[in-house]
Amino acid sequence: MSYILKIVVPPLPAEDALAWRAADTICDNDDDAAPKAPVLVRLHDVLTSVYPCLCSDAAEAPDMDDTPWSDGPLINNFGSASAVLGLATDDDDGSAVAFIVAASRTLGLTVLDGQVRKIHRPQVPQPGQTYAVCVQGVANGYREATVKAAAGRVFGATPEQVGTIFATPGCRIKRGADYLTALRYQAMLRRLGCRSTIEVEQPPAA
Hints:
With 206 residues, this protein is of the alpha+beta class. The chain has helices spanning 16-29, 38-50, 95-106, 144-155, 159-167, 179-192, and strands spanning 3-8, 82-87, 110-113, 118-120, 131-138, 171-177, 194-200.
């Protein structure tokens, strides 16, 4: 059984009951032959940069857990006004669903999670604000040596550089990122077994 998320481009009514009905109508009436919405194509590219499509060679990357999608090519699930994404299962800690929701909201999209009957409405970051991604150590359940080796391969860092990163709680490995980029880095780190946080950077002086 798949875990289904509906993502819609048009604004939805403020009242949840009306929003659910409107979203169902949008998804049911989306024209497969129409050009895909650019914002949905961008979302697809962001999601597959962390969780590769089942049809992609990157899905076999040795440093990643199994990709969560229930079908592919994933791009076929994106339309002119909506996307309906199926996950083979919600991962144990919910990180895949959390990333999909956060990335979608950041792009001004609404996500409807029918499993928990919750609507995640858009939350677009302040324009021009930048963020830093900070490594906070190895996640529970992961072997430190394995995580460090994987992080070194993925980020092209030497063992000495990796050792410094993990020996320095809160070490900033990405600076000056927009929020969507910061989310992508954090999700990638989580897949490798790293704990991390996103911090707001001070805006540049006027």
